[in-house]
Amino acid sequence: GAVVSQHPSRVICKSGTSVKIECRSLDFQATTMFWYRQFPKKSLMLMATSNEGSKATYEQGVEKDKFLINHASLTLSTLTVTSAHPEDSSFYICSAKGLADLAKNIQYFGAGTRLSVL
Amino acid sequence: AQTVTQSQPEMSVQEAETVTLSCTYDTSENNYYLFWYKQPPSRQMILVIRQEAYKQQNATENRFSVNFQKAAKSFSLKISDSQLGDTAMYFCAFRISGGYQKVTFGTGTKLQVIP
Known about the structure:
Chain A has strands spanning 4-7, 10-13, 19-25, 30-38, 44-51, 57-58, 67-73, 76-81, 90-98, 108-109, 113-117. With 118 residues, chain A is mainly beta. Chain A is 0% helix and 53% strand. Chains A and B meet through strand 5, strand 9 and strand 10 of A and strand 5 and strand 6 of B.
């Protein structure tokens, strides 16, 4: 199946700093990437949808200035958590969807990033 | 708006036995996809099985099969011959077909396979 690589898997940062998380599709072109947040023992909450070359579409209640998403190429999307605070600590997961038959209509997920803000 | 409901927060099954996880959804759409995803302790989300709403035949993937009841808006997952590696959170998910429609996830069922 299609592979999505997410990096880093774990990051610890100080309050007030910014953290960048990368999501790469390794063997297919991802026209659309999704960023989710998962709280402990909870379901995935969609934060935003990004299409290559255009601005991300944020879900209601998600601060676009705090969670900056860039999808500059067909294989890479980044999520930057700006001025991180302890309440931003969470598990962040990306997924990707491509045009190729293999990935059509199916989202492939990265392994997630655990962010801990001290 | 679409909603996905998983009414079983936790379940357990003896190794080699069969278990069924329930999922119901609500939508006014006619064309959509349904999915079951598995999230093991590693947290990597893995697609287990998918079903197109226009297909009457239930999807099957090896030991995993679904019972798709479109009129009842029910989409249960049956795991046969349960294995220890099946221990995970299982999420039912829904997506309208076409475009870049987002996926809506249920709250998950934690499945424990007991040796």
